[in-house]
Amino acid sequence: MANVPQLVFNNGHTCPVIGLGTWNSQPGEVTQAVKDAIDAGYRHLDCAHIYGNEKEVGLALKEKFAEGVIKRKDIFITSKLWCTHHRPDLVEGALRTTLSDLGLDYIDLYLIHWPQAFKEGGELLPYDSQGKLIPSPVDYVDTWKAMEKVVDLGLTKSIGLSNFNKKQIDRVMEIARIKPASLQIEVHPYLNHEKLIDYARSLGITVTAYSPLGSPDRPGPKPGYSHLLEDPLLKTIGEKYNKSPAQILIRYAIDRGLIVIPKSVTKSRIIQNFNVFDFQLTAEDIKTIGSLECNGRLCSLGDINQPFYPFNDEF
Ligand SMILES: NC(=O)c1ccc[n+]([C@@H]2O[C@H](COP(=O)([O-])OP(=O)(O)OC[C@H]3O[C@@H](n4cnc5c(N)ncnc54)[C@H](OP(=O)(O)O)[C@@H]3O)[C@@H](O)[C@H]2O)c1
Q1: Per the database record, which ranges form the NADP-dependent oxidoreductase domain (predicted)?
Q2: Which DSSP symbol is given to 127?
Q3: Is residue 6 left, alpha or beta, with left meaning phi > 0 and alpha meaning psi from -120 to 50?
């Protein structure tokens, strides 16, 4: 796959260390963003059914395949099973919908997007009259068994988890015939997730860092905090290498041995974010950036009192 450095999964498949994020990339802008990313050298896309734009991502792929710029085997595609489809009999159909939207016969990695299941059969975000998401009793270990079946069917090469905590990963590991290949979690200097990363690694699970730039589309982690991309420390370290804070943040993930999936729909930023393979952070830089840790979680879902909410434990 092109010249992008790769990590090797526990099943022997490989994954480019940088991919383009597509959450919040609007239909109408995501097709062009994916085309720009492929032209810039990206060979990995991070998608999900809940992002509502997999058809538009598929249009870009179709065009790049037709132009002969890439073949299917040259690009790594991740998608995610949404919480209303955890019931084992719904998993294959959910993945087939994603495949049809993307215009593909298989994807490379399918993740359980969140450990919590929501009421099946209606809205993707089924709220009750109090504005709370309506849970479903499905246990993600039963979902995992159905995830293994879609590997057997050849619909995805690898399967993994997203937003699972240590205990939840352990429960999956206990029953898994096919071990999770990757864990996708929020990682950036305000939430550097050292313990969970070390734990996943000890099990042979690679880690993908989402919201690596601090997801500036969302409110900042704590009132009074400057936004991560404006953090003076990142600017100072960036000056040392003649790189932007975004490029320092992307290297912060890569140099910790992670896969990283920054999102942009802006061509110049898509190119800038990929232009990170001509420098490396030192161990000292990584330690200094790590000192920004403030448990600054940006992304959460559902009610903390509901079953399988992942963020009540220490990690
Ligand atoms: N598994 C999960 O539950 C989960 C949760 C969240 C995210 N994700 C995945 O991770 C991806 C990345 O996370 P994210 O979208 O939350 O946030 P992010 O990648 O940390 O930040 C994206 C934002 O940064 C801006 N940006 C990008 N490059 C920049 C640069 N060089 N300089 C300044 N600003 C820049 C983008 O603006 P423009 O687009 O306007 O350029 C966009 O507003 C998502 O797109 C999604 O694929 C997964």
Answers
A1: 18-291
A2: B
A3: beta
The active-site residue, picked from 51, 140, 190, 252, is 51
Domain boundaries, position 191? 6-290
Residue 63 backbone phi and psi in degrees, to 5: -65, -45
pLDDT at 56 exceeding the cut of 70: yes
Residue 302 lies in a domain: no
Measuring CA to CA, which residue among 175, 170, 178 is closest to residue 200? 170
Atom of ligand 1 nearest to the CA of 46: 47
To the question of whether residue 113 is assigned a binding role by annotation, the answer is yes
C-alpha closest to that of 31 among 260, 267, 203: 267
* Contact criterion met (CB below 8 Å) for 133 and 127: yes
Is 186 or 305 the better-scoring residue by pLDDT? Answer: 186
Cα 178 to ligand 1 centroid, rounded to whole Å: 30
Q: What is the pLDDT of residue 27?
A: 85
**Do the domain assignments include residue 1?**
no
User: Residue 66 falls within a domain, yes or no?
Assistant: yes
Q: Is 60 among the domain residues?
A: yes
On the 0-12 / 13-18 / 19+ scale of CB atoms within 10 A, 313 is exposed
> In this structure, are residues 212 and 187 in contact, taking their beta carbons and an 8 Å threshold?
yes
